[in-house]
Amino acid sequence: MRSYFQPPIRLGSKTTQLVSHIASVDYIEVASEIEALLLESRLIKKFRPFYNIASKDDTSPFYVHLTSSKFPKPVVNHLPNQAIAGPFLSGWTVRHILKSLRRVAPYHTESPCFYRHLGLCRPCPDDPQTTIADYLKNISRLKRMLRGQFKSVLHLAVKAQDFETATALRDLLLRPVSPEEYVVNPNLLCDRRQEALESLHLALNTWPLVRIEMYDISQLAGSAVTGAMTVAVNGQLSPTNYRHFTIHSGRDDVARLKEMLSRRLKTDWPTPDLIVVDGGKPQLSIVNWDIPTIALAKKEEIIYTPSSAIKLPRSHPGLQLLQRLRDEAHRFARRLHHRHRSLIIK
């Protein structure tokens, strides 16, 4: 809960708007981690929460289906129709649930069945003594647990004196909860990106930032000079927009950077909201576009603008975004640089 109630600059616009619409907070107490995950899935399916980014994306939620084979098994996909459970917000969650429930209701996977020796495929279809009826009892038990009917499964197991199943279910429900395994705020990553953009926008006193481009030069003793452009869109690195440049100017980094930027200007790629060059004032002086431009010095992590030098704390989200972009530019430029160097050595 605490992750939702922070200053707006840390939340980002999406969660800030969500919090502004909260009228009250309620909770439902359950006995175990697995029950909580399944309850979350059922509530999302019932209420379709508007601000839940995963449930609004048709490609994101995960569902559990049963195959139509003689010995059915659960499979995970993104198809809501005829699902026996879902939606789940992450693949990890649904795989974790199925793995846990398999200890109570074993099922086969059509793999070489060493699971049989672990008690995770019992009764096993590979065993000639296994009947379909016995196997389907496990599948029925699995479906009830996916619907949250744990007490019913436990009651039936005790009534049938199936104490092995009852013990396995008891151990499952008593498993310690590990809250560090979960993303508490489903909008957390989106909020962090928004926080970085807004804090950088305020620090630079520029217009809102959507597309940021970073430029870097890599060389080997003056030969095999390469350049790289890395891009962040809405605060997220966008590798599909990265570009390599083979540099032909043979003087210094400033001239090489000027060549790369002039070639970039001639393209029809989307116009950036901010240009970042790796270096200091000399590198900054060559850019004369009508686009906000800054230079990021390596050692002191000082941001140079045409009129000032800005020293942000290392914990500043905007600075951290620029550092990630610069590190990506170094890595990306070196990749082409090493390719050129290997050709020279040959």
UniProtKB/TrEMBL annotation:
Per its UniProt entry, which superkingdom is the organism in?
Answer: Bacteria
The entry's cellular-component GO terms read: excinuclease repair complex
| PANTHER family according to UniProt | UVRABC SYSTEM PROTEIN C, UVRC/OXIDOREDUCTASE
| Domain annotation GIY-YIG: ranges | 1-53
Which segments constitute the UvrC family homology region profile domain? 191-287
**An example Gene Ontology molecular-function term:** excinuclease ABC activity
Please state what the protein is called: Excinuclease ABC, C subunit domain protein
Q: Which organism is it from?
A: Candidatus Amesbacteria bacterium GW2011_GWA1_47_20
One BP term from GO: nucleotide-excision repair
